[in-house]
């Protein structure tokens, strides 16, 4: 009888452990689902601003302008687009652009899968091919969880950081946004023709942050201004008083800055910039 009681206790204990493990798994899946819901509700601009709002960068991290663009110093913030001076990634003889990447090992397997999905999303719409780093590669993207979400604009040479913090940056839209920076693209609201489509309410901008809305002599490639671009920030970006810092013109009611993935214009510009011939080739 005593042996039967011990056996029953052991069965109960193992059943309880199994139940706890299953519950834990369900909880993790629920958290993941909630994170995905959040990414659908918030635009890329809102996600970036939320992730970078309270940055406390390490000494070796770069200066940021426009919220998430890395520069060597604040003095570089008004520089012309680098694509005019040779920061494009090189195209191979087969017509594709192969860009090595390295994902830091501090990401979980699920987080790595989210990043890889973002990297691979370029393959079906362009000639861009992100591929894992191999010995002998001379330049590559080092994807790391640093302080916030940010990237350099265009190819820098050697190892260049794309920061995708585990706290707030691991969404499809933010990954595409930072990768487009790395490919040479600036924000939509800094386009040279911005004032024909967006009114900047300078009085609502956080003191000392007005330079983030300076126009750049961008290479627009004959494409129209795109309110739905994944590179367009939302209307309250850098607001000091919860009033819009940007409004579309002539119709202030036109929605903008709500993208959750690359738009058709984003894809068209990417293909034009890199002269991709077969956009959908796998």
Description:
The radius of gyration is 22 Å and the shape is globular. The chain contains five helices and nine strands. With 282 residues, it is an alpha/beta fold. The strands form two sheets. It has a seven-stranded mixed sheet with strand order 1-2-6-7-5-3-4. Strands 8-9 form a two-stranded antiparallel sheet. A hairpin with a 5-residue loop joins strand 6 (149-152) and strand 7.
Computed Rg: 22 Å
Strand order of the largest sheet: 1-2-6-7-5-3-4
Sequence of secondary-structure elements: HHEEEHEEEEHEEH
Helix content: 25-40%
Outline, from the CA principal axes? globular
Continuous helix count: 5
Question: What layout of secondary structure does this protein have?
Answer:
Elements: H1 2-41, H2 44-52, E1 63-65, E2 69-71, E3 97-103, H3 109-120, E4 128-132, E5 139-144, E6 149-152, E7 158-164, H4 172-182, E8 198-200, E9 246-248, H5 264-273
Parallel strand pairs: 2-6, 3-4, 3-5, 5-7
Antiparallel strand pairs: 1-2, 6-7, 8-9
Helix pairs in contact: 3-4
Question: Keyphrases for this structure?
Answer:
globular, seven-stranded mixed β-sheet, alpha/beta, 9 strands, 5 helices, two-stranded antiparallel sheet
Quick synopsis:
The protein has 282 residues and is an alpha/beta fold. The chain contains 5 helices and 9 strands, in the order ααβββαββββαββα. The strands form 2 sheets. It has a 7-stranded mixed sheet with strand order 1-2-6-7-5-3-4.
